[in-house]
Amino acid sequence: MNDQPEAGLPGPESGAGPDAGALETALAQKSALLHEIDHRVKNNLQLIASLILLQSRRTADPAARAALKTVLERVAAVATVHRRLFQNDPLSFDVADFIRDLTGDLAASAGRDDLEIALDLDHIAIPAASAAAFALVVNELLGNAVKHAFPPGRRGRVSVRLSNGDGLCRLTIADDGVGLGGQPPGFGLTIVKLLGQQLHADVQVEDAQPGVRATVIVPMTAVPKPDRASP
Asked: Are residues 176 and 202 in contact, defined by beta-carbon separation less than 8 angstroms?
C-alpha cells in the first residue's frame, strides 16, 4: 500500500502551503504601507499647522491673526479625522464621537463657562471618503455658534442634534444668541455651502429668534462609498 500523497496534492503535514505564506507577507507589506502613509500624512498636516502658527505669531494685524487661527482650527479638524480613521475603522467615520471631541475642544478654546452645549447624537458612521467634508461642516457651524453667538458676559445655550432616518443624516446646530442681525454670510458659511454641494446636502441657515439655526441634511445614498478591493 502506497502512503505517499498523490502528485500535486498536499500531504497531511504540509499545512496551508506556500500560498498562505505569500498572503501573510502581502498583508504585512500592506500594513507597513498604511503605517508609512499615516506617518507621512500626519507629518504633512503638522507641518502645515506649524507654518500657519508661525505666520500668525509674526502677524501684527488682529484680524489677520484671527483669520489664521481659524485656518489652523480647520487643519486641526482634518487632522482629527485622519487620526480617527487610522486608529479605528479606515472605511467609515463615527460622526457622533467626532462631535463630542470637537465640542470639548471648542469650549476649552473659547474659555467660556457661561455657555451650555447640549448634545443629542445618534450613532452615525459615514464613509471615509466624506469624513473630512462633513467634519469641516460641523467645525464651521459649531465653531461659529460658540465663538460668535454670545458677546462676553451673555449666557447662552447651543444645541447639537444628529439623527438618521429615512435614508437621511440630519445635523441641526442651534443657539439662542444674538442671531444673524442682517449681516451678510461670512466666509465660513461659504465653505459650508461648498462642502454641502460635495456631500449633495441641503444646507439651511436661518434666524431662529432668538439665535441661529443651521440644518444640514445629507442623503446617505448620495454619500460617496469607499473603494473596496475585490476579494
From this structure: no
**Where do the structural domains in the chain lie, given as residue ranges?**
27-88, 91-226
* Cα atoms in the Cβ-side hemisphere of radius 13 Å centred on 108: 6
pTM confidence score: 0.73
Q: What pairs with residue 173 in β-bridges? A: 160, 214
Structure confidence by residue, pLDDT tens digits, 77-123: 888 887 877 777 667 788 999 999 889 888 888 788 888 999 999 99
C-alpha to C-alpha distance for 81 and 135, rounded to whole angstroms: 7
d(CA 87, CA 131): 14
Task: Name the one residue in this structure whose C-alpha cell is 443657539.
Answer: 175
C-alpha cell at 42: 500626519
- Spatial distance between the Cα atoms of 149 and 115, rounded to a whole number of angstroms: 10
Name the phi and psi angles at 207, rounded to 5: -70, 130
- Does the domain at 91-226 match CATH 3.10.340.11? Answer given as no
Neighbouring-strand partners of residue 214: 173, 205
How many C-beta atoms surround the C-beta of residue 171 within 10 A? 24
Q: What is the pLDDT of residues 159-189, one digit of tens each?
A: 999 999 888 999 999 999 988 877 777 888 8
Using CA of residue 51, residue 55, residue 56, residue 62, what is the dihedral sign? negative
Q: Are 164 and 113 in contact (CB under 8 A)?
A: no
